[in-house]
Amino acid sequence: MMSAGADRAWNARDAILLWLYEMKMQGNGSPVVDVGDVQAAANWAAEPITADEVASATNYLKDQGYIKGSGAFGGGVPRPAITSDGENLVAQGLSVRPGPAQQANTTGVTNTYNVTTNAPTNVAIGSNNFTQTFAPTGEQVESLLAVANALERLLASQEPVDAGRVEALADDVRAAAAEPEQDKNKLMAILSNVIGAVSTAAGSEMGQQVTNLAVGVIQSLG
User: Which domain of life is it from (predicted)?
Assistant: First the structure.
């Protein structure tokens, strides 16, 4: 099972690549990495990304061909430019993680649950290592419905997203809201997929609204 620190590193890589994509679409093909801008564009909801994490992330992205640019003496790529491979990945809402394709999670959010050993175990969003059921509160149900409604409004706004996938996720979220008992891990995976599905519209008001609502529900699950 991936540790919270490792999961965060992958999230940071996805977040930086998403930001570079947004900057490229705005006409800035080789920006100086600004952590605040990265976190705002990616709706980062965890502890701030550090300089060391930026250096590690940009080194990896360059090694994999997702960005290009000159390396700095202290490490990292201070003025990266996203490549066509990087653009294609972001446009599909996919993560840079190796292995089977999975949705990008740019929020930095992982969660700690207590399992049968009573020892805290860090579990990444989308992990299939265990099942934990819970009864959602009325507020959580309302928040889930708000996510579903926001996804449907995003579809109506004709933002550049995969309409079929977003529609299916809206149905999944609405169905989850109707369940009296939830598989927490499954719900976290659905919400993570929501964030990934709208990543190409994350710079728009509607895209940010969907992401913020989904992150809010994830954080409420604790």
Answer: Bacteria
